[in-house]
Amino acid sequence: MSSVAFLLVTCCLDKSRSDILEQVLENLSEHAPQLVNELTVFDNASTTFDPRSLVSTYNVVVSDRNVGYWSAIDWWLDSMRQSPPDYVYVIESDMMHFPNSFHRVFDCCDYLDRNPDVGSVRLHEYS
């Protein structure tokens, strides 16, 4: 089976963002309890949420300044350079998941393994 690394990028500068993040974290614990100790949370200098409260559950990195979404992802990818996963899955701080979403992630990995000419897939079609 392919290895997958999971990242959640957060930045809560007001209470509404903190409230949404709390819902996302509850949603992840409900639909992907297997992510405990596998998910990395990169916090981009939140002011209304204490990411250190997640340390007992997830791998947490706290930036002392907002480096931006893509720089957070770049830092995370670079941190895995010595032992890169086969695939990465980035979760935005307002991304909710449905039941079986994470099973579908691994179905997608299997599809990519069997179809090397395909570069990426998504779990849901948006229109």
Uncertain residue segments: none
**Largest sheet, strands/sense/barrel:** 4 strands, parallel
What is the helix fraction of residues, given as a range? 25-40%
The coarse silhouette is globular
- Terminal Cα span: 31 Å
The largest beta-sheet arranges its strands as 3-2-1-4
Average pLDDT metric: 90
DSSP summary, beta strand count: 4
- Radius of gyration, in angstroms, nearest whole number: 15 Å
Structural class: alpha/beta
Strand content range: 15-25%
Count of helical stretches: 3
Elements, N to C (H/E): EHEEHEH
Layout of helices and strands:
Blueprint: E1 4-10, H1 15-31, E2 39-43, E3 59-62, H2 69-79, E4 87-92, H3 101-114
Parallel strand pairs: 1-2, 1-4, 2-3
Describe this structure as you would to a colleague.
The protein has 127 residues and is an alpha/beta fold. Helix content is 33%, strand content 17%. The protein has three helices and four strands; from the N terminus they run E-H-E-E-H-E-H. It has a four-stranded parallel β-sheet. Helix 1 links the parallel strand 1 (4-10) and strand 2. It is globular.
Characteristic terms for this protein:
alpha/beta, 33% helix, 3 helices, 127 residues
The gist of it:
The chain is α/β, with parallel strands linked by helices and 127 residues long. It has helices spanning 15-31, 69-79, 101-114; strands at 4-10, 39-43, 59-62, 87-92. The protein starts with a strand and ends in a 13-residue tail after the last helix.
